[in-house]
Model the fold of this input.
Amino acid sequence: MNSHLRLPVWALLFVTQAGLGAGAGTESPEATRGVYFSEKSYQPVPLPRFAEIRDRLPSPLFEERPEWVSMYWKSWELAFKNFHEPASGSGYVSQFIDAAFNENIFLWDTCFMTMFCNCAHSLVPGIASLDNFYAKQHEDGEICREINRSTGRDYAPWANREGRQLFSRWGWTGVGNEPVVYQGRPTPQPPPELTLDALNHPVLAWAELESYRVTGDRERLGRVYEPLVRYYRALQKYLRQGNGLYMTDWASMDNSPRNAFLKGGGCAIDTSSQMALFGRNLATIAELLGKAPEAAGFAGEAGELSRAINALMWDPARQFYFDLTLEGKRAPVKTIAGFWPLVAGVASADQADDLVKELENPATFNRLHRVPTLAADQAGYDPAGGYWRGAVWAPTTTMVIRGLERYGRGALGREIVLNHLAIMGQVFQKTDTVWENYAPDAPAPGRPAKSDFVGWSGIGPILYLLEFAVGLKPDAASNTLVWEVASAKPLGVERYRFNRHVVSLKAEPSGGDGRSLKLSVASDGPFKLVVRHSGREETYPIAKGQNALSFPRLDRT
Done:
């Protein structure tokens, strides 16, 4: 979370004395905002209430860990408290979920919150929450990562009201108002609308494809395509250094010890990999929309960037990815940012193997609670969390898991998921709530961490529970649901939602051999069910209505 949790004194004085409250500062005229997005106004509908919607939400059965189910329902209850209608005059176009961290909505927080809201698509504000960011996109493509929830105006310190070339308002080391130095390329003109603090973590397209995987809503991809392309091009214009890599500042990981090495325009392994991921995601979306030449172009750009990342940011001696200083030297700090090349498809098979070794190394990332944001053998590591000095965060854990899946390491990904759920469950039993982040070396909330945080921490109790513990992985595009049954006790879910279907599934051990299951599936429409259990896989055509099945299939010839 890029959060303003612990502002330096100079920053507090800056905000106060400069009059940079939520409504201050110079912004682009409202008429020039959101010009690439078709939604222009909010059409009021009743805001969902937990008491009214609860009996329509997916209801998991997981007898192995009943506390995880309790945590699931608590997380939904907290999430419902953070659903909002657009304030009058804000210019927002959709109901939305917000972390309720402060008075602003956050872009990359919202991207990750949509991922668990996908599980209740059409019942709750989820992926449409991103519409408000598209509606506030600047004409040059920039989107501020932090926008006031009530006024719809960019968070004022992130507005480049001075009209300067790109700079960081709060800097890399607490000095503030530090300029970016472009090396090996011209300084982009005109100056950006926003500061570097505002332009971080370009994961919008990833969030859209995560939603598409569940909903199959291709029409939505068509509506968001141009805003995404414009955003991508704006980041290329302002964040790309002459070496082809991308910069960031404190805003990617607030207080990480990496930040000092990025000063002045150093290149970040996370931002660079995220831009490669962005390019590949745009290629996928373009292909789905029948835009083959554009798809090829984006894929080519992602490949070129991947080659630059591997040539400059991979350290063959340390077998890990590192940030680059402005002078082009690899920074010494080993952080979780080094795993972004997995989900981005940047790493080779051998590099992926080396990254897996780090994930399994108790001296670095294989801590009691996986995966810390700073390797445990690095200076400044905080076993209690220390925010981005070791804490375990939902978005970075999700990135690691999806990256492992991309490289065929789903078993390790599931191991990390179950570890995360187990620690969250222990903390939930002690505190009856969900936290912003968690300690890496104790079953405890991070120190510091905000409580009742759903918020992106809802990914674990909701998405992880359904996808990895119960084991349901949807592919709406092919109308297929994969069910990986790994528990020896009854499990399933009522009212599971994917591809406009509502499905109830239950698996129970059968026959006493641990390899056979009795399956019951009720669906409001036909789909293909793939069941994996005990090293075997069976495929079932599911018809509308009640379906009684056996695993392994008894009807095979």
Residues 478-551 form one domain. The CA atoms of residues 6 and 255 lie 9 Å apart.
